Amino acid sequence: MADAELEEIRRARLAQLQQQASSREGNGGSSNQEEQRKQLQERRIAILNQILEPAAADRLGRIRLVNESRAADIENRLIMLAQTGQLRQKVTEEQLKELLNAVAENNRKEEESHKIVINRRKGGWDDDDDDLLNL
């Protein structure tokens, strides 16, 4: 990614932070917030168009149709990678698949860490032992 593109991304992020700070002060109305949200979305789309190949962008669009939150998570990760300079070239569809698999694996590991496992003791009473008590 070129230095000019990274500088543009940084300027957009700085403008976003400044807009958020001004809206916290109570200066912005709902229409102003709506416009800021639209501008932010447009910037996100522009950044994603710069870092994704068309096939990868198409796949991400299909993911968005199925699972909005997962697509937003992937987009955030891609934008973060671009902002930190870890992307050297446009992301291909195969690289996007790898990222999706890594995120899915990470989610599975998280879910497994919260699992409760119940182990039953062996050698306890069973139905046949009830007959002995009734003698």
TrEMBL record:
The species this protein was found in: Monascus purpureus
Single GO term (MF): DNA binding
PANTHER family in the cross-refs: PROGRAMMED CELL DEATH PROTEIN 5
Cellular component, GO annotation: cytosol; nucleus
Region (Disordered): 16-39
InterPro entries from the UniProt entry: PDCD5-like, PDCD5-like_sf
Family: Belongs to the PDCD5 family.
Entry protein name: Programmed cell death protein 5
Ranges in coiled-coil conformation: none
